[in-house]
């Protein structure tokens, strides 16, 4: 994949620069690689020299412009976990950032917001541009965890790491497709999964990205209809569940890819039947990026991406690869089958002990979701200072009564694991990629 093991090796902005080939699909039609590169260089000239810049662009094409312009200038893009002004102000203060790149009317008090749309007008090709090269050890982005369980943690990503991961993903998903896949993603580009599977695979994986950021099922259908075949949908279990429930007919898709939360076997099979394509799932983490895949409806075990090696020491899992700067310890509990495959046991903080008995929170949540009439659910350990917790709690979206739900759960669970309180809500507190905002869930339970 790389010519050497040298992390400083320079790597092009594109894996293969073909000026006249499409890079993205925008509202006005396709944008070629040369047109994109011209806009990148024009924006780079307008940006102030600074080590960090915050990329808040929602449109995927605008995000890519800002991301690549920062790369060319040697700046690191900060990718906040949300667009809340307080989050952004705190990040700007910590990293001494004065400028944000935007593509809407977002106003962040005290910060200079540069609208990337204003920097593209009148950009035309006069001479052929040479493709920029970026040092492999340049810190391209600092991504932040969702903060669903506490303060977001920062994770530095070198350019070589992003290039390596996107190349491996393309090898896994795109190698059997004769034409370049046109990628529609429901995940924000600020999320590592969204960055890798929509932006980076367009730069280094041979894909062509759609600039849109659809959320609701009809928006997904519209975005897919706006790009030609063959199509790939990059999404999450939450979006898949909503699409299935909506019954909206989707344009033909070659493959659907899911990540950010566990995909149940039932949802995977329903999606494959409803949309007549295979659904692949990605396992990864913010610390190391995408690591393994599986077709959930047909496989229990996970296959590491080519070149990534899994090891275990004293029950702790580690991964290493040429594109990763260091050996990375994983927080999850895995059962290695060999150096290239494993079974997922649970999240590191997922196993709880109640009355001397142990169970996985994900397992209880899965059993809740398997009940006919339960639309969405999450099970967790409530926070009660000064008390010894002896009960799980659950938030549930359902028209069933608590008694009906409890009666169903007793068929599968020891009574000590039946959630109490079991609170019904109109919708679960999730972020843009479908992850539960645990602090909000805890507050909802406290009100009970």
UniProtKB/TrEMBL annotation:
Keyword Ligase: yes
Keywords: Ligase
GO MF terms held by the record: ligase activity
Domain AMP-dependent synthetase/ligase residue range list: 117-302
InterPro entries named in the record: AMP-bd_C_sf (IPR045851), AMP-dep_synth/lig_dom (IPR000873), ANL_N_sf (IPR042099), ATP-dep_AMP-bd_enzyme (IPR050237)
Pfam families: AMP-binding
Keyword Ligase in annotation: yes
Segment forming the signal sequence: none
Protein's name in the database: FIGfam138462: Acyl-CoA synthetase, AMP-(Fatty) acid ligase
Organism of this sequence: hydrothermal vent metagenome
